[in-house]
Write a structure and sequence with these properties.
Cupredoxin, 108 residues, magnesium, Immunoglobulin-like, metal-binding, 7 strands, single chain, mainly beta, two-stranded antiparallel sheet, 37% strand, CcO_II-like_C, five-stranded mixed β-sheet
């Protein structure tokens, strides 16, 4: 999560992160999540997505994002003292942009 002094104009407080999850638009994506401790819940309300993360269990979800944009969510399971500081920021981009982003990661 970005601290208050790191936020740029227009970025939401307590929801923006320093490393967004980036996925391509109109491509079926499979999310696989688990937890190392208590139950968490990975939620993107604007996409009607909620996936529970439980210790010892691999939860999966397949989804194709129909629009480009940045979508915010957070842990939606009260999981402990830092529950309110578990943001989700998902960036959906065009496939060509996603490929370029991946190549940039390989070059870093």
């Amino acid at each position: 999560m970005k601290s208050l002094d790191q936020l740029e104009l227009g970025e939401p407080r307590l929801l923006e992160v320093d490393n967004r999850c980036v996925v391509p638009c109109d491509v079926n994506i499979r999310f696989c999540i688990t937890s190392g401790d208590v139950i968490h819940s990975w939620a993107l309300p604007s996409m009607s997505i909620k996936l529970d993360a439980m210790s010892g269990i691999l939860s999966t979800l397949s989804y194709s994002f129909p629009v480009v944009g940045v979508f915010y969510g957070q842990c939606s399971e009260i999981c402990g003292a830092n529950h309110s500081f578990m943001p989700v920021a998902l960036e959906v981009t065009l496939l060509d942009n996603f490929k370029s982003w991946c190549m940039g990661l390989l070059n870093d």
